[in-house]
Each structure stands twice: as C-alpha cells, then as structure tokens.
Amino acid sequence: MSNLTDKIIWITGASSGIGEALTYEFANQNAKVILSARRKEELERVKANCPVSVQNNIFILPLDLAHTAMLQNITAQAIRLFGHIDILVNNGGVGQRSLILETSLEVDKQIMEVNFFGTITLTKSLLPHFIQRQQGHYVTVTSLTGKFGTPFRSAYAASKHALHGFFDALRAEHWKDNIKVTMICPGFIQTNLSVKALTGERTQNDKTLTHYKKKSAEWCARKIVVAIERQQEEVYIGGKEVFAVYLKRFFPTVFSKIIRKVPVR
Predict the structure, then answer these.
(1) DSSP 20-65
(2) Domain count, the chain
(3) Rounded CA gap, 2 and 70, in Å?
(4) Three-state SS at 109
(5) pLDDT value of position 199
(6) What tens digit of pLDDT does each residue of 29-43 get?
(7) Which of helix, strand or coil describes residue 183?
(8) Residue 219 burial by Cβ neighbours in a 10 Å radius (0-12, 13-18, 19+)
(9) Average pLDDT, the chain
(10) Does residue 17 sit within a domain?
(11) Residue 3: inside a domain
C-alpha cells in the first residue's frame, strides 16, 4: 500500500501538464484529490480520465491564483470537502518568453502576482489548518530557473527564486508544527507552459522554440510522487540541464559564460 493512500491532496494547476499527470498518479495510489485551476471544463476532463472506481474521491474546485482576495474563502471550501487537507501541491503558474528590454512592467507584475503572491496567499490561508492539526505538507513546483536565471525568463526566474526564499523560511519557522516542505525543481518537461508563456506585452507565445529534448510530464510526476513519499526537501528533475545547478554553485563564472550562449528560448 502506498503511503499516499487515503491522503487528501489539493493540487493547483491540475488542468494540464505536470498537474494533470500528478492527478493520475495520485488517483492510481488511491489518494483523495481536490483539483484546482481556472478552467473548470478541463478539470472535468482530467477527472473523467481517472479510473471510475476513484472518481467519487475527486473533487473539482476552480480558482484563479491571480485573484488573491478569493483564496481564503476557497481554502475554507477545500477543507470542508473532506474535513481536512494533508498535502497542498502548489503547481499553478504562468510562464514567460521575452527579453528584459522588451518586457513591460505590467507583465513582470502579472507573473509575480500569479506565481508568487497567488501561491503564498494560498499557502498562508492553509497554514492555520496545518498548525491546528500539527501536521501538513507543502509541495511547491518551482523550476530549475528558481536556482539560476536564464535569458528570456527574467520575471519567471525571479518569481521562482522568491518561492524558494519564502518556503525555506516557512520550513524553518514551522518544523516544530510537523509541517514539511518539498521544493520541486523541474527542468525541460513537455507541458503547455512554454506554449502558453507570456511575451513582453501580455500576449501568449503559442509556440515553443526550446532546442532540448524534454522529459514527459508523466515521468516527471512519478519523480515528484517519490519525493513526496520520502518528504525530501528539494529535488531537481530533468535531464542534463540539472547539472547547471551544481555548475552555478561551484563554478559560477564558468556557468555565467555558458548560460549566455545556451538556446533556452
């Protein structure tokens, strides 16, 4: 039996990509799942793709991370669905593909509003519940760009760096409440994040130009489930791009010279 069996897991960004793949993994392990994203019809599709035998344990709760004023009330609704929540998977977010010089400040703000402020608002809304229960697990999907910045991803990288700072602090403050934090840092994964990334003027990219072979979302989801079960603090998931984390850490000058020439767009 999986140690996720009967766990109540709330996942944002569940309508596609890594979030959708995670939903299927959780369902296959008999977890009870709350699916959140903006598009209700896509959440219905994901639920319908799960085994019929577990669909009664899957609830749909639409939300928009950009509407932070609504998240406290939505958190209360999520808790009422099963009576409590064991794990929150912060997976929702928006991507970026634009040069700094070409990116309006409004786009920078929009990315921070969704990726950072939306995520921490939901996290803080759930925190008293975790403290009261003296247990809980935050799983936050950031990115390898949360460990280093790259061209075309300035605001995106900044938002992911900010999440690492916030959740490192949360882990340190609430270890005594038995609250766990797992930071997930994917590399190149096959999702719509690149396709639907924002450009410099709030328009969607609608194409991906990345030259690297990408791992599947299903492969990534399996790695994430293992990290959750082991309650790991931080994991890097991807191909050879993962080594950039260590290159940046131990050979920052070499990394700086390499990253400026890498076709990461």
Answers:
(1) HHHHHHHHHTT-EEEEE-S-HHHHHHHHHHS-GGGGGGEEE----T
(2) 1
(3) 34
(4) helix
(5) 79
(6) 999 999 999 999 999
(7) strand
(8) middle
(9) 93
(10) yes
(11) no
Task: Write out the residue range of the structural domain in which residue 75 sits.
Answer: 8-259
Annotated catalytic residue, options 156, 212, 236, 246 = 156
Confirm if 64 and 12 have CB atoms less than 8 A apart.
no
Q: Quick check: 247 and 148 in contact, CB under 8 A?
A: no
Residues 6+ apart with CB under 8 A from 56: none
Residue type, 162: A
pLDDT in tens, 128-171: 999 999 999 999 999 999 999 999 999 999 999 999 999 999 99
Determine how many CB atoms are found less than 10 A away from the CB of residue 209. 11
Q: Which residues of 57-90 are buried (b: 16+ CB within 10 A; e: fewer)?
A: bbbbbebbbeebeebeebbeebbeebeebbbbbb
pLDDT band of 196, cuts 50, 70, 90: low
The answer to whether 47 and 126 are in contact (CB under 8 A) is no
- Which CATH number is 94's domain given? 3.40.50.720
Describe the strand order of the beta sheet including 58-60 as a list of residue ranges: 58-60, 32-36, 8-12, 87-90, 136-141, 179-186, 234-237
- This prediction's pTM: 0.93
Q: Annotated catalytic, 156?
A: yes
Residue type for position 57: N
